[in-house]
Amino acid sequence: MNLASLPDLIFTVLFFFMIVTHMRDVDPKVQYNVPQGTELTKEVNKRGLVYIFIGKPVDAQGRVLSDETRIQMGDRYVTVADIGSEIAKERNRLSEEDRQHLTVTIRADRDTEMGIINDVKQELRKAGALNINYSAEKKVKKQSVKQEI
Hints:
Largest sheet: 6 strands, mixed
Helix content: 25-40%
Structural class: alpha/beta
């Protein structure tokens, strides 16, 4: 049996997976189910993105630890009061060109109270982060099915 082409095949498959695999920058430590929306647009600007996750804390296996809503920026939990300083750290980490395009993406659980989201928005406004995106999934329209008897 001739195995001369086997290394070529293995490297081709490896190269394919390296191209199509998306690497996460941050592992979420909160459980969130994003709300559904109808008028969604995809974010094309990947430069200067800062993610804020809002939901219930989970452990490494994905089990919910408590019913308390937590806010995650980067790899750690923060309070609403810490958001301004965290945005300043992220802004200093970015290049001058990316600072102009700083966009905060909020990925909040659909059951999160609006008071918490409003508090986060107010802190972002104080920190000068005015470009805010909200993550959502496309709402599937239910089609009515008529059955004839």
